[in-house]
Predict the structure.
Amino acid sequence: MIALVGRPNSGKTTLFNWLTGSRFRAVNYPGATVECYLGQTHGRYGESLEVIDTPGTYSLFPKSFDEEVTYQTLFKNYKEYDVQGAVVVMDATQWQRQWPLVEQIKESGIPAVVALTMTDLLRKENQNLDDKQLSELMQLPVVPIDGQLGGGVSELLQEVRKLERKSGFHPPEEWSEDKYKKAQREASIWSARVQKNKKNPEDLTYFDRTRYWDDILLHPIAGLLLFFTVMFALFSSIFWLADPFMGWVDEGFSWLANSILEWGGEGSLWADFFSNGLVASLGAVMVFVPQIFILFFGISFLEDTGYLARAATLIDRPFSAVGLSGRSFVPLLSGYACAVPAMMAARNIRSATERWIALFIIPLMTCSARLPVYALLLSFLFFGDAAWKPGLALAGLYFSALILGAIAAAVLSRWLPSDNEMSFLMELPLYRRPSLRVVLRSAITRTLSYVRRAGPIIFVLAMLIWLGTTFPRQLDMSETQQLQNSYIGQVGQWVEPIFEPMGSDWRIGIGLISAFAAREVFVSTLAIVFGVTSETEEGLTNSLISSMKGALWPDGSPLFTFASVMAILVFFMIALQCMSTFAIAVREMRSWRFALTQLIVLNLIAWSLAVVTYQILS
């Protein structure tokens, strides 16, 4: 087995993709790889080799959890993985700063080959590195890699197969600060021999343009304003750009539901289950898949340009005021997709205190599972209005989550003991033109992952909720009486006093409880509990909104009002309603106490603030 070793953002995961043909992707900021990924080299490269992609590391002297994983893989678990050599991945645009890692690999006795990535960026400037000269100086084979086209991968594997297998490796002795400085000076001296510079000195270089844009995008005021503008544009597009696609999905599920009812005939119990139970609940959630795809596409696009790495740097100063650093930006940003990988990404945080705080507040970030809930409730509030209005409200919800997280972090940082590991250092990548193919593949992969994760949960809960609302079946009762006397109705009326202070009756309460399995299930539960059918031409989504508008309290007053909907939004914004998140919190912190405290505290705060919101607005 060959281990890929390199600094964060050096192109390591991209090389892993080319070697194995896998769909793991590289993001343009450090900390993306937090576990070791295994794969077999693609058949087009000849005899198969096992490859392990280790987390990014700045040196072989670990200072964070992800660096520790790489260290353990190379020196403690090498027999388990049968590591016989390493490919040291080096960014050609920053090779001098990455020189010390190569020297440490050599000192450890690991047979190694150097893969020189980002060479396409140098070519755009009519610059190049003399890989033969660099190989002479390093006393290791050096192979240039074209990350966009896959050039050099075959040649790299040829060099890998020449490596002499050794019985074991040993960690190098700890480097002093003077030794680091000496290595950097040697790399600077050798730079003149290695660098081939053919550019016209009068030309504005790619690197100059990067510095030019950094002056704007990293400005403490203008940079933040631009960041908020970009995010607002993204969230607005989630509504107006996705609208026609949502209509097609909605019509498709409506057609399927109607067809099942026609096939089954009037009074058919199985047809009612598949049509108004399963299809209606799945359609109520899957109709929001276009919006989720657009969100992932936008984030992937910003990642690939190199912009989000700047956002991490930009946000380091405000983060430091609440006990965090820019290093927490990656996990918190990942939390906007899903809290589970976000908590795993927190392993690259060196400070134990900062990691504790980050893990606690990650569930407050607006994950993709909340998007169907937000989209439904905002569509209800802004029904028929211009797309920018719900888009602005959605942006407000996303930024409010960040503000709440900041407040929670500030409070926690005052209670927890501080340490000396909260420094933040990041090598900013050059700006790049994103590859549409890569961005599309990433967005599709993430969206399909969401569907695969949500689908089985929705199916199981849809079946349980349909059974609970359908039985005990009494045909002489009206639809409303049947629902109230059903098993779900009985449970809902028992828990109604808990949710009534926040403006919700037992029907919404059932939705909120079911959402603890997965937040998006709230939408499908409402579709079943409110008896949404596809018998009208307006589609499942509009039918659900119409049912919400017609839902009443026993005294005849509307159930869904501005106050009650805002209270539900506040509850979803804060509550920890995901059992997967709870499980990963136990694993990452190795503490049931931490996970239970997080679960209880966040849900109590969510309920309390929802009650306050409803009471004030009503």
